[in-house]
Specification:
binds pyridoxal-5'-phosphate, alpha/beta, five-stranded mixed β-sheet
Length: about 400
């Protein structure tokens, strides 16, 4: 795609698409594990880091590279690196950038894998960590030490949808010479582009909104600094080996073609459902960044195009109420994951955040009656009817 300043729908359809010798309209799946050469000179050329060719599919693969190029365009990044899952991307970023003796500041509300790496893995390698509430900028700054290497946040955070101010955190990071890293899975590039707000690294689980159809795991990392990109690619991808399969890259390239219109429709349904929940007596609390009742609403308005497709509610009756709510949907599914066309409902305290201690859950604001909803693309009247029935079961 040569058109400069193309709109997001155009970028999502055409960005990075390969044109092969047969004129295939879309990027084919290159399943081959290796590539053959005529001479040592040809291999040397393919290994030139300035203009890399293809030697072996763990190092690079044409279908996977097409996905990386499309993602880099959508995130407005100099480069992207594809991984086999969001967790592989998280692990690669944190472990390739932080060494023993260094220090990281991490948000108290994080995806399970990231939380585990900051609380368990890094201490095992004698790296230090400090947990903060990233909406408290003074606390973030106070946590930065001489040996701090990274500040790591999510916004909206999983599962409480708490919002932190990416622009202000990026400023703090720059002031102290620290890398700012954001897991942008919940917002997705449709809503927020953390690199444009001054972040050094953005990563996502592509399993969610990028795929959008629940048929493949993937992850990616984007950055603008080529040394940073090269470090993460060499150490975190090629050595750790958590690569994306070409078949999955193909599905993700397909999912991306409808990405902007899907995420827009998810957000429209989510806003309507959140408003419905706000007036329901059995819903004790509604967390949706697109509603003025959300504490992060003003910041969300600045850094997100919409409120996103995720809603969190607290239902009456705690654990008991939550258990009745999730049993017996007609349309929604009681399942982990998010960003699919299908509406998915999960219970953080017993599913995605069950590995946290009760104290950690309490600090992160994860109550026992908390329900996380990934609002799907079904007709909103049908979605509301399904949740009306669920609330009547409590
Ligand atoms: C799902 C998710 C991940 C992990 O992604 P996988 O593809 O499941 O490994 C990381 N961060 C967030 C915010 C997620 O929702």
């Amino acid at each position: 795609m040569n058109k400069k300043n193309a709109g997001m729908a155009t970028q999502a359809i055409h960005g990075g698409e390969i044109k092969d010798q047969y004129g295939a309209q879309i990027t084919p799946v290159y399943r081959n594990s290796t590539f053959h050469f005529e001479s040592p000179k040809a291999i040397a050329e393919a290994m030139n880091p300035e203009e890399p060719g293809y030697v072996y599919s763990r190092v690079s693969n044409p279908t996977v590279r097409a996905f990386e190029q499309r993602i880099a365009i959508l995130e407005n990044a100099k480069g992207a690196i594809a991984f086999g899952s969001g967790s592989a991307a998280i692990t690669a970023v944190i472990l390739s950038l932080i060494s023993g003796g260094e220090h990281a500041v991490y948000s108290q509300v994080l995806y399970d894998t990231s939380h585990h790496i900051f609380t368990q893995t890094l201490p095992r390698f004698k790296a230090e960590t400090t947990v903060v509430d990233p909406s408290d900028l003074a606390a973030v700054e106070a946590a930065i030490q001489e040996n701090t290497k990274m500040i790591y946040v999510e916004t909206p955070a999983n599962p409480t949808l708490s919002i932190c101010d990416l622009k202000e955190i990026a400023k703090l990071a720059k002031k102290h010479g620290v890398l700012a890293v954001c897991d942008n899975t919940f917002a997705s590039a449709y809503n927020t582009k953390p690199l444009d707000l001054g972040f050094d690294v953005v990563l996502e689980s592509a399993t969610k909104y990028v795929n959008g159809h629940g048929d493949g795991l993937g992850g990616f990392v984007c950055a603008n600094d080529s040394v940073l990109l090269e470090t993460i690619r060499r150490e975190g991808l090629i050595n750790y080996g958590g690569v994306m399969a070409p078949d999955i890259a193909f599905l993700l390239l397909r999912g991306l073609k409808t990405f902007p219109m899907r995420v827009k429709a998810h957000s429209e349904n989510a806003l309507a459902l959140a408003k419905y929940f706000e007036s329901h007596p059995k819903v004790e609390k509604v967390y949706y960044p697109g509603l003025p009742s959300h504490p992060g609403y003003e910041i969300a308005k600045k850094q997100m195009k919409t409120g996103g497709g995720m809603i969190v509610i607290e239902v009456a009756g705690g654990l008991e109420g939550a258990s009745r709510f999730v049993t017996g949907f007609e349309l929604a599914s009681y399942a982990a994951s998010l960003g699919d066309a299908d509406t998915l409902v999960e219970h953080p305290a017993t599913m995605t955040h069950a590995r946290m201690t009760p104290e950690e859950r309490q600090r992160a604001g994860i109550g026992e009656g908390m329900i996380r909803i990934s609002v799907g693309l079904e007709d909103i009247e049908d979605i509301i009817e399904d949740f009306e029935n669920a609330l009547n079961r409590i």
